[in-house]
Amino acid sequence: MQETILRPPAKRVWLLFLLFLLCAFLGAQDVSPEEDTYDKLVFKAAVFGPSDEIFIWWGHAALIVENTAAGYARIFDWGVFSYPSDSFLKDFALNRIRYKCAVGPAQWDIEAYTKEDRDIVIYTLDLDSSKKKTILDYAENNVFPENCWYVYHQFNDNCSTRIRDLVDMGTGGQLKEYFLEKPGRFTLRGHMRRFSWYSPFYDWFLGFLLGRNVDRKINMWEEMYLPVELGRNINDFSYIDDSGNMRNLVNGVEIVNRTKYRTAILDAPRAQWPRTLAVGLIIAALLALVILFRKKHPLAGRTLWGISQSLLGLAFGSMGTILFFASRIAERDYMRHNINLLFFNPLLLAAIPLGIYAAQGKTIALLKKFAVSAERCLCILWLCVFTAGLITLLLEFIPGLYQENQSTILMLLPITFVAGPLALERRKPFGR
User: Fold this and answer.
1) pTM of this structure
2) Average pLDDT over residues 183-197
3) Rounded Cα distance, 128 and 3, in Å
4) By percentage, how much of the chain surpasses pLDDT 90?
5) For 129-156, what is each residue's pLDDT tens digit?
6) What crossing angle do the helices spanning 298-326 and 351-360 adopt, rounded to 10°?
7) What is the DSSP string of 358-412?
8) Alpha-carbon span 184 to 404, nearest angstrom
9) 188-196 vs 200-209: helix axis angle to the nearest 10?
């Protein structure tokens, strides 16, 4: 049986051919969306100022991606975290806080931070379409559940460094290449203290926990672990785009909110030692008063002296214990190589029972035929701590051993001098 072939008229063939070309053209437009899609996207680096909670004292940074055609904006945030208990500080100490990247409507965050009276500055980035695609692909990939969690590091990998690295992608690595060669203004510790100086205890205690690693010279690339430094540095930066033209990285700065009630961030860190020295002198003076009181009231004075020694052991030993275990956590390399462990360590907890024994006038049997009073043991203990403080001051002049802990030493020396050398010298007149 012969097959019958029906052929359409010539005009219909031409119409079908033109329709095929039109579909092919539209299909090609969909395959290469850069011109239609990425040119409509506006990338912005958002820098938010400090808030009330201690973990937000140093501000925050995020990436905003606006679609001008659709009229919406998303914010990619690497500062989202969770912790199991009700206390951030407790879970931070136990290393149980987890950080991740999340995305949401930008307007929600901006409104929330405005209500908190935080500084909000947004830097509009002038990027090539190809670089926009690279950044967006990376950011969207980081939102997936299998990719969103990451190991947070206060100085090397945080919400600000993530935005810094994304901006560097937008310049093809030119941002990093340029700022790696520029020396920073302060050390990591110095920059940190610009934000914490207004809270004396936390300013000292946070610095007490940090080791020598944060006192080295750094470059401007490393300074951008702080959101305010990120904004300051990218604002005046220029790079060579895909066409070979010099281009300003930031083509617009919008100040959405300026804080009305929060204290301004320091331009440079201030000296901490005058107030810690004052604390040390006050405690030393109180100990000296106990010594004078004991002259007139030997029994009550001995009890009061023993209690004061136990309290010193509790305070110094507890801080030393926190420092010892905090420096053992792998992710906290910035707490290692801490010379404060020479005079703040768990061994000082021994002063607690020794103080109780001293209050009772007891002796400690070291060998069968050798015993020493608990009070004398305490004096020797604090003498050792005092000597360690003096040695530490000398170590500051040895290259590679410098640590900015003068405020801690100057607080420690007056206290341990009265509790150690002075008490040991005046012990004989006191008797037991």
Assistant:
1) 0.84
2) 97
3) 58
4) 73
5) 999 999 999 999 999 999 999 999 999 9
6) 170
7) HHHT-EEEEETTEEEEHHHHHHHHHHHHHHHHHHHHHHTTSTT---S-HHHHHHH
8) 17
9) 160
Q: How many CA atoms lie within 13 A of 159 on its CB side?
A: 29
How many Å separate Cα 422 from the centre of its chain?
Answer: 40
Helix (H) or strand (E) holding 169: helix 159-170
| Among 430, 353, 345, residue whose Cα is nearest residue 392 | 345
- The DSSP secondary structure of 198-253, one letter per residue, reads TSHHHHHHHHHH--GGGGS--BHHHHTTSHHHHHHHHHT-EEE-TTS-EEESEEEE
Encoding tokens for residue 334?
């910035």
423, two tokens: 């008490």
Report residue 312 as tokens: 């010193």
Whose structure tokens read 């900015």? 404
Q: How far apart are the first and last CA of the chain?
A: 130
Contact residues for 267 (Cβ-Cβ < 8 A; gap 6+) = 194
pLDDT digits (tens, 9 = 90+) for 328-365: 888 889 999 999 999 999 999 999 999 999 999 888 87
More reliable by pLDDT, 311 or 1: 311
